Amino acid sequence: MLQPNDEAISQLTALAERLNDADLLVERAFGQRYPQLSIKNTNMRDGRGWELLSGVIEVVVDRGKSWFTWDDGDRISPTELVDVAAERVMRALTVSRPV
Question: Are 39 and 33 spatial neighbours (Cβ–Cβ below 8 Å)?
Fold first, then answer.
């Protein structure tokens, strides 16, 4: 069950603020039925200029608990753990360099 818009927007805004310092493009899509964040790694593009690493994040409620999830339903973290969610999003959408 998706979270009511006002609270979801507040939670997604907190996550977007944590991701602003990352090398990711964060686009807020709050004017639709279910607010979302579209996250893109603009450093990873194919020959046509499309981002190879991108995702859409929503807020859902399951058994009374709010979660950040990818749009396919995979959970990222509870919404109260914004720093954990930001770290997981950055890890999912970046490529580590070998040491």
Answer: no
Q: How crowded is the C-beta side of 7, counted as CA atoms within 13 Å?
A: 12
Q: Return the HEC string of 26-93.
A: EEEECCCCCCEEEEECCCCECCCCCECCEEEEEEEEECCEEEEEECCCCEEEECCCHHHHHHHHHHHC
The partner residues of 75 in beta bridges, in order of sequence, read 69
Contact 8, 79 (CB under 8 A): no
The tens place of each residue's pLDDT in the chain, 99 residues long, gives 555 688 999 999 999 999 987 778 899 888 877 899 999 887 777 776 666 788 999 999 999 999 999 999 999 999 999 999 999 999 998 877 655
pTM assigned to the model: 0.83
Residues facing 39 on adjacent strands: 26, 55
